[in-house]
Amino acid sequence: MAEAHQAVGFRPPLTSDGGEVELSPPLLQEIYLSGLRSWKRHLSRFWGRTASQASRHPGGCVVCFVSMGGPDLHTHVALRLLLSYHGWLLETHGVMSSPTKTWLALVRIFSGRHPMLFSYQRSLPRQPVPAVQDTVRKYLESVRPVLCEEDFEWISALAREFLKLQASLLQWYLQLKYWWASNYVSDWWEEFVYLRSRNSLMVNSNYYMMDFLNVTPTPVQAARAGNAVHALLLYRHRLNRQEIFPTLLMGMRPLCSAQYEKIFNTTRIPGVHRDHIHHLRDSRHVAVFHRGRFFRVGTHSQSGLLSPRALEQQFQRILDDPSPACPHEEHLAALTAAPRDMWAQVRKSLKTQAEEALEAVEGAAFFVSLDSEPAGDAAGDTPEPSGDSAASLDAYAHALLAGRGHDRWFDKSFSLIIFSNGKLGLSVEHAWADCPISGHMWEFTLATECFQLGYSADGHCKGHPDPSLPQPQRLHWDLPDKIHLSISLALRGAQALAENIDCHVFPFSHFGKSFIKRCHLSSDSFIQTALQLAHFRDRGRFCLTYESAMTRLFLEGRTETVRSCTREACSFVRAMEHQEKTDPQCLALFRLAVDKHQALLKAAMSGQGVDRHLFALYIVSQFLRLQSPFLDQVHSEQWQLATSQIPVQQMHLFDIHNYPDYVSSGGGFGPADEHGYGVSYIFTGEDTITFHISSKKSSTRTDSHRLGQHIRDALLDVAALFQEGQHLKRRA
Predict the structure, then answer these.
(1) CATH fold of 503-606+638-649+659-731, please?
(2) Which residues are catalytic?
(3) Count of CB atoms within 10 A of residue 461's CB?
(4) How many percent of the chain have pLDDT more than 70?
(5) Among candidates 339, 491, 318, 287, which has minimal Cα distance to 404?
């Protein structure tokens, strides 16, 4: 999701004064250290899995250790060979060939009956380094639709020069890293795209996840917080014991689970030139913010995890506490929304003067914000909300993405936000993991707090309060005078950034995944092609389009870019905008565009994408101080449309037939370009698609609501090309 913003905004690693950051250590040493870090992670996971199995069978640690060596090694080798097969990706949806059936049967045999979360980690293949000639060819193909003839010839000449003079040397270093480290690109992606970015995390790096769209299980704020916090900590408990079942793509192919390790007890610590991610093995408290005050709330007693009702009692105590915020304490968290260099300098003073309070926040399992205002109050259940209902959703999204600039601790891996009317949501920092990871946790949380924990008839958590619990601990900040100005500057910058964001959220309920399935098309490719039509109508031109795809088929894989603005998509859009083309002709072009998008998506997922390879080549050139006009040009491009689909991964947790409103409504992220859009979407059940659009109010070229209307019209126009979709447009 928000990684689109960081990726498309990636520039050479510069300091705030414009000078180059010294890339130290030298490249060969960096590759060596990258591999060393990989092996340390492998050993940590090995011992973690051993300890987890031993905890289930006390006294069996030696047995666990022996069982994971010897014959088990051969199993992992065989499974790794099997998981290197990608032929299943290339098959027609719903059709499985005999080789794939045989492969699937063998995978199930070698996987064992009860795989744990990290069971497949040692068996996952490494992400391949594509042939550099193939990457350059695909890149040129992707920019052809958006460049004039003269510009295309110019970039083609740069590409030929790159292939002739520099490509082989840069590729050699990547191949070396491929053989030594777990992943040739992911650690550099985290380092240079996220941790070295000096921009504010708010809007630029964070993204949000919404509550149920049309229902709120209870209006009692403290009760919703109690159940949600308890559900999140249940998820953490299952995570620590590796009881979360590994994610299987299309029910067949396991995905890498490495990103799950840092969901909880994790904080991004600011540095002058680079940040670092600080992760604790455990944390027995959450940090809570309410009306400008910070509290430490313990989550465990001697008998274990506090009950939802006990947690509700603690949150209610905070809500009832009449004590005011201390001077400047109210706006302290705005520092986490400041440029990273500034926050790093101020944090040094804060750590000296208020170390205990700072450690309580940064060492918390996660951050909780009890907002004093309602959100999402007017969201109706009509197919196309309007007026107050639509404005309410937009304000709800804005509150989750930016808040008021000082009521979120943006450094935390995620912040749970509970509004005064019981609505809730997440604000997630992006460096530690990608959206499917937090989305998996969020689905579990929503399903557990509603269907497993539940609420009493009066809206409170079930069970009884615990009067013996000590009061939540108020955190006290001894703020030196010299940081008062920094807080004021940070607040002013955060508020300006927040006020400039234009959010628009709407559920499109004229049709959804079921209709697209009946058309025998990929739902994601259907939407991406329709988005090209909508954006062209909005801006009158084509632009580079960023769609995030995952590479977790490989060990420690993260994401790849699908360049969705293809020649085929452009041909379809032009046909739709010219009256002489008939519906059958437009439909034929639409199918070609969808097929092309599917091919690009599968290539990205199987490690044959364009952008991560070009990124890694660029980083090598920076280490070698080797100037490449071609790579410089690639990383100066503007992507004015950044898109992402939010996958629903655990539909078995929800009963969409009996409780159709109890499904997550997805989330969104900030725009990637000053004059661009951020668009995310989620298929809610079978007949609704919820869109989240963002843009900058300062741009005279964009308007989130205008693009939203174009998306509605484009979807209906595309549906009308199909015989069974014509009545949808007439009805709309």
Answers:
(1) Chloramphenicol Acetyltransferase (3.30.559)
(2) 430
(3) 27
(4) 90
(5) 491
